[in-house]
Design brief:
The protein is built from 14 helices and twelve strands. It is of the alpha/beta class. The radius of gyration is 21 Å and the shape is globular.
Length: about 350
């Protein structure tokens, strides 16, 4: 399996760690990094190592399947070269898409590069995507037969329903802080809330990215003490905040199928998010979450105010959100992933 280093901050690495912790019977799983995020050089050094070591591994330790995780941008280019090397070796190759922005990235490429990437993707033995909408996109855009595209939704480790953690008057956002995830839209919406709400509730923002910009924007709000931009936190603190919050908000402008959202739902949180990427296939507006238009600050503000003012609605959505992600448990995901590997091998 090829993808980001397990130490990288982000959803793909989180998924890789979850897969790595599973016991796949009769499968010798090896996860090799293609990049790390500690430096610009690190984004290419691991990829170069994969290229340099390919001849020896191809001869002496050739895998039956090479499962390649990719996103967009340079990730697509790096992974396309690895696809061709392992196809030359005779291994089966699976491409696994996690991109939230492929639809905006791909059309901007020069036409020869678009043709090459499309041609390369069609040579993969299987393409795995996160949702039905992404399946349609890759099939139509790259002319990949739908029979070779499989949907494997983002999994979650379902926590126990029993918890002694006290729930606080907290609204939580997690993810890469920036425009794409709607972080700044959320802060602006929070600033529009009546002060009687922001005096009682607080907003916690966690993640990497444009942390300082988020802090400056929060500091300029009329009640800056109600917003805490904590940045990237330890796994224990993240879990503590998530378990104790009442509402989880992810007002993304584009997405694949965000792990943070699914994790919040697994912890029975009422969620406010946007109908982008694979989210509309998970969230039924008013049933297991609230959907707002991407970038619509007024809708975010109104949704927050309505939920905070209606504790019974928060409780109802919380119960339904947990039920709706139970089919995405890691146990089910493991079996589905193993079935896809066997399908590629013709077992």
């Amino acid at each position: 399996m090829l993808g980001p280093s397990l130490s990288v901050k982000g959803g793909i690495s989180s998924l890789e760690r979850m897969i790595d912790e599973q016991n796949f019977e009769d499968v010798n799983l090896e996860i090799l990094p293609t990049m790390h995020d500690r430096s610009l050089i690190g984004r290419f050094s691991h990829w170069l190592i994969r290229l340099i070591t390919w001849p020896l591994r191809s001869i002496f330790h050739r895998p039956d399947i090479v499962h390649i995780h990719f996103s967009h941008g340079a990730s697509t280019v790096r992974k396309t070269t690895l696809l061709w090397l392992w196809k030359i070796s005779g291994s089966k190759v699976i491409l696994h898409s996690h991109s939230s922005s492929f639809q905006s990235f791909f059309p901007k490429l020069p036409s020869p590069l678009r043709w090459f990437i499309s041609f390369s993707f069609r040579k993969a033995d299987m393409l795995i995507v996160l949702s039905e909408s992404w399946k349609s996109y890759y099939s139509l855009t790259m002319r990949i037969p739908e029979s070779r595209i499989n949907i494997l939704s983002t999994p979650v480790m379902l926590p126990s329903r029993e918890s002694n953690i006290k729930v606080k008057n907290t609204v939580f956002f997690s993810g890469r802080i920036g425009v794409r995830k709607g972080t700044f839209d959320l802060i602006e919406a929070w600033n529009l809330l009546p002060e009687e709400i922001t005096n009682e509730y607080n907003l916690i923002i966690s993640g990497d990215g444009e942390i300082n910009k988020a802090r400056r924007l929060a500091a300029s709000c009329k009640n800056p003490h109600s917003i805490e931009v904590v940045g990237w936190v330890s796994e224990d603190r993240f879990s503590s905040i998530l378990q104790s919050c009442k509402i989880y908000v992810l007002p993304s402008r584009n997405e694949g199928l965000p792990m943070g959202l699914i994790e919040a739902m697994s912890h029975s949180k009422a969620v406010i998010t946007t109908p982008v990427g694979g989210i509309p296939e998970l969230i039924n507006h008013g049933q297991n979450g609230i959907l707002v238009e991407p970038g619509n600050i007024e809708q975010i503000k109104n949704s927050l105010q309505n939920l905070i003012s209606n504790p019974s609605e928060v409780e109802r959505l919380s119960i339904n959100s947990r039920k709706s992600v139970e089919p995405l448990s890691m146990d089910i995901y493991k079996e589905n992933l193993l079935s896809l590997w066997k399908e590629v091998l013709g077992c």
